[in-house]
Design a protein that fits this description.
39% of the residues lie in helices and 15% in strands. By secondary structure, the protein is an alpha/beta fold. It folds into three domains: 56 residues, no CATH class; 199 residues, Aldolase class I (TIM Barrel); 71 residues, no CATH class. The strands form two sheets. Strands 4, 5, 6, 7, 8, 9, 10, 11, 12, 13 and 14 form an eleven-stranded mixed β-sheet that branches. A three-stranded antiparallel β-sheet has the order 1-2-3. A hairpin with a 3-residue loop joins strand 13 and strand 14. The protein is globular, with a radius of gyration of 22 Å.
Amino acid sequence: MARDAGHPALEAMQAARPRSRHAHLAGDVALVAETAGLYRLDDAQAATLAEGLMSGDASTTAALQRLGLDAPPSLPPAADLTRPVRALALTVSQTCNLACTYCYAAGGSFGGPDTRMGWDVARRAIDALIAATPPGGAVKIAFMGGEPAIARDLIRQAVDHARRRAAARAVSVGFSTTTNATLVTAEDAAFLAAHRFAVTVSIDGARAANDRLRPARGGAGSFDRVAQGVAHLARHAGRIALSARVTATPHNLDLAETMTALGAMGFTSVGVSPMIASPTGQGALAAADFETLLAQMMACGEAWMAATLEGGHHPFANLATALTELHRGQPRSHGCGAARDYLALDAAGNYSACHRFVNDDAGAMGSLGNGIDHGRRRSFLAARAVEAQAPCATCWARRLCGGGCHHEVINAGRPACDYVRGWLHYALTAYSRLATARPDWFDGRA
């Protein structure tokens, strides 16, 4: 890709370079970094802030004061950032029928032998989760792998048990699963629909891209089998929240083609996640790939924007998610809920910070036998808080990204920060456009 000054992705990355830790300006939208607050500025006000940003933190603080805005100092991490655990991922199958080239789970087994969760482990974990939830509360249970459909009988048994136990305690329970869809039958889809599952299908594009990146263990392509499983799920569109997750690697960066192909399959929501850390070293994005990825993401964003402004629909989920979070204006200490209110449990009954930390001591959080290690949760969250991350301290985007995925940062550092800032800068400009043309889109999203 040519790196000329007129390239929108390169321009976004350049505009997003940190100039002050206190604020950022994207068109007529000012972001006050520490509070994640957004403010629309007129031309004179934007010029005032732009001038302050050119001279660093002190000048930016002065400019914000002249505009009547605050630039509060960063606070140290709280002593205890944990919340009651209300979401649990059960790694019901630590094996997989695919051989994805970049799999964070090392082929589904997380670096150990192929194994499945036993009923006793699943039952005890569900009982502990619900018992710790007060009446009137809510919990979420996710079934993960490997490929969770390999353990379909356990999933059905676990769902029935969770519903009974939750009802007895006046607790509501929701279910989700992430699957490659190759093993999903019509009967499976009907079961998932009956229990209102949120289903995320891992698929990496149209046939050629998906078959290259997500082959079966024997080497054959998986696309046809995925399509058949998705068709079963799509028949229950009113009762299954169906979405696709695309892992962006150097080999499937034509995201416009991906959106078209997956939309035709029945997906109304398609999210894209960059491959940052690969246990095999294969499939991870190199530095030069991030500009290409940002260009593709922005192009999909423009397609989404055009459809939305016309009252239509486009499946690209990343921009809709970013705009919703910007509108809510809730500053983050972490990139997700891992270890805070969400844990994972492996087949052996060991808790971890999230499903990506299975068999990884860095995210170990206790066991069913000894209980959740709340001390480990507290220390993990304090160490991983964005307030405690030295590279994040000078970044205006810190309270929007929360410091990134814990697993990726621990294993690969932060190679994607320029990309993340460029994407957020674009999202801020899109926010201004949509708020002007379609303010009703944000109704109910605060």
